[in-house]
Design brief:
Length: about 230
């Protein structure tokens, strides 16, 4: 049950908000790096946000007038209800789909989006689905469009088991802003839901899909932001 996204949103979203407000996953630095990239693309842009959650972050990064069309998807209908409110100020066509991101990508029109964004969601998928993610991203992107991926990534050479031990140790020793019960909740979520890859593996999946010019935008411990271009 604890790896069910609907359960996660209802039961643990409050803890995630606390993680963000204390900058425990470096949202501040990552957001600043992504904002810098977005500033180079004034738009108006067609954007697809995969695993959008409540769309609070992308809502703060994008400027009014920068969005022509926003399509977001998430497995949690509760998250999408909040996203609808957070995206209201943009006053543009917002299409929110309660579906798996790979299914959404497969149904999306080819050569349509300027930007594919995904924040802290791709690590939930097995590696085959991550390859499908990049393959489909390339198909739905317009020429010169890009994928912006924010996610947890393993250190090069680090196995998943080591990652789980190291990350959970950091949660236990450094995430003092959370109560003991909240830290336990986070650690259980990590053990059940985190299947991160290394940056080089993600880069090779992107290159297999025909994406190029992979570049790192930011890295803070296991939290990274990358851009892959069509
Ligand atoms: C940690 S939240 C991140 C939300 C938002 N992108 C952000 O950066 O704040 C991860 C989100 O990914 C969603 N998710 C997980 N697996 C998914 C999948 N296969 N398809 C669509 N959404 C998924 C979860 O429901 C959850 O809302």
């Amino acid at each position: 049950m604890s790896n069910d996204p609907i359960y996660i949103f209802r039961k643990t979203w409050g803890t995630y908000q606390k993680v963000i407000s204390h900058n425990l996953m470096y949202h501040k630095e990552i957001t600043a790096a992504v904002r810098k990239l977005f500033q180079a693309h004034p738009g108006p842009l067609n954007i697809i946000d995969l695993g959008c959650g409540d769309a609070a972050h992308i809502g703060k990064i994008l400027k009014p007038g920068q969005v022509a069309e926003y399509c977001g998807c998430d497995l949690s209908p509760y998250a999408l209800d909040v996203a609808r409110n957070n995206l209201e100020p943009f006053g543009v066509r917002v299409n929110l789909l309660c579906k798996d991101m790979i299914a959404v990508l497969k149904e999306a029109p080819a050569n349509h989006f300027d930007l594919v964004y995904s924040g802290y969601a791709l690590h939930h998928l097995p590696v085959e689905a991550k390859q499908a993610f990049f393959t489909q991203c390339r198909r739905v992107l317009r020429e010169n469009g890009c994928v912006v991926l924010v996610d947890v990534m393993r250190v090069e050479g680090q196995e998943r088991q080591e990652y789980l031990v190291d990350y959970n140790e950091a949660v236990a020793n450094q995430w003092d802003a959370l109560s003991r019960a909240e830290r336990d909740e986070v650690q259980e979520h990590i053990r059940n839901c985190d299947f991160p890859e290394t940056p080089s593996l993600l880069q090779s999946l992107a290159e297999n899909a025909g994406l190029k010019n992979s570049r790192k935008l930011e890295k803070r411990t296991w939290h990274e932001a990358w851009c892959y271009q069509k």
